[in-house]
Write a structure and sequence with these properties.
The protein has 191 residues and is of the alpha+beta class. The chain has six helices and five strands, in the order E-H-E-H-H-H-E-H-E-E-H. It has a five-stranded antiparallel β-sheet, sandwiched between helices. Helix 5 packs antiparallel against helix 6.
């Protein structure tokens, strides 16, 4: 929304980072991360984009959290972490499968959806609900490890998934970011 020239714009919450650290034996501090990748036709244009990102962080009171790297050793490590997040989460517990709740909303509704979804997880006492996101386009993925033989746990996830999907539609978004509809979301489709 700020007119930044970004190639990638990804978010991972601290639960996703926890799974990545465990799987890859890395030591990312447990906090939320936004990974940005800037491209340009000159070093000056990339530097301008980076400065613009810093300005947005400063305006939002987040400047202290902004870190930048153009070290060719760091960059693959960051994107490897993001690229393997699903696998890391899926392997975060014994005998679990993952339930995925994927939705997309207009960027103006993004933070409202994420905050409400996290409250839904808390209300249903689902303590571990990693989130990754292509937040540049409003797509959000909650990846919940669950023991599918535990019917109570599955029902909790189904309730939250339905709430999040319905909320996304009410926010003029969609109940599927990119992973299809599936049987669980058929009832949410308008005729």
């Amino acid at each position: 929304q700020q007119g930044l020239c970004l190639h990638k714009c990804e978010l991972m919450d601290k639960d996703a980072i926890r799974a990545i650290n465990k799987f890859h034996c890395t030591d990312f501090p447990l906090k939320h991360y936004i990974f940005l990748e800037a491209h340009g036709n000159s070093r000056e244009s990339v530097d301008l984009t980076i400065d613009d990102c810093k300005d947005v962080c400063r305006e939002g009171g987040m400047e202290e959290f902004f870190q930048f790297s153009d070290d060719s050793a760091d960059i693959p490590m960051f994107w490897r972490a993001r690229g393997t997040a699903w696998t890391c989460i899926a392997r975060s517990g014994k005998n679990v499968q993952i339930a995925v709740v994927d939705v997309a909303v207009p960027l103006s509704k993004y933070s409202e959806l994420v905050l409400a979804a996290k409250k839904d997880f808390e209300f249903m006492k689902i303590e571990y609900s990693p989130m990754i996101s292509h937040f540049g386009d409003g797509a959000v993925y909650f990846i919940i490890p669950v023991h599918f033989i535990d019917r109570s746990a599955v029902q909790k996830v189904e309730v939250v998934a339905s709430r999040i999907s319905q909320r996304a539609i009410q926010m003029e978004g969609t109940c599927s970011a990119s992973n299809g509809i599936g049987a669980a979301k058929r009832e949410l489709l308008a005729a």
